[in-house]
Amino acid sequence: MAMYRKLGKTSSQRKALLRNQVTALLYNGKIITTEARAKELRKTAEKLIAMAVREKDNYEEVTVKAKVARKDKDGKRVKEVKEIDGVKKKVTVYDEIEKTIKKDKPSRLHVRRQMLSVLYDVTEVPEKAAGKKRNTKKVDLVAKLFDEYAQKYQSRNGGYTRIVKIGERKGDGAMMVLIELV
């Protein structure tokens, strides 16, 4: 008996397909795919969620000082004229602030890097700016795993996904399913 399904693809294609579908599942919460793909996808998705649950509180809060550019009411940087070596130049004004950040402990950092090796980058595009680079945002799926999904599933011992059969695909008769996070 095989350890995994080959899905009719080469190893690199299969890995890319599963990475893409895991990323889509964790970003959207549910996807529609074939039954064989869903069963393979479930293994990877549940491992990632289990790692996030195990390491969710493994960090320390650290206060750091940072320089941040001062901004006016329109959100533009404030500049003032200074004389440097006899030449007048416009220089951005910076304020020093204290910020509290979460610093991962080594085991959580290792888990974060393992997750990043599986998940693809997700860029969120607003509807009115479809097809344009302006106003796009990168979504941090690893942070979503640690903050949102780990909190949601902390009392659960596995079984984070559900597969619901939809019916056969019209073209080739493959069984289509909805895989969703419980």
Percent of residues in β-strands: 25-35%
Oligomeric state, counting identical vs distinct chains: single chain
Outline the biggest β-sheet: 3 strands, antiparallel
User: Which parts are unreliable, with pLDDT below 50 for 5 consecutive residues or more?
Assistant: none
How large is the count of helical segments? 4
Descriptive account of the structure:
Strand 8 and strand 9 form a beta hairpin. 36% of the residues lie in helices and 33% in strands. It is built from four helices and nine strands. With 182 residues, the chain is an alpha+beta fold. The strands form four sheets. The protein has a three-stranded antiparallel sheet. It has a two-stranded antiparallel sheet with strand order 2-5. Strands 3-4 form a two-stranded antiparallel sheet.
SSE topology:
Blueprint: H1 11-28, E1 30-34, H2 35-55, E2 59-69, E3 79-84, E4 87-92, E5 94-104, H3 106-118, E6 122-124, E7 137-139, H4 141-153, E8 161-168, E9 175-181
Antiparallel strand pairs: 1-9, 2-5, 3-4, 6-7, 8-9
Helix pairs in contact: 1-2, 2-3, 2-4
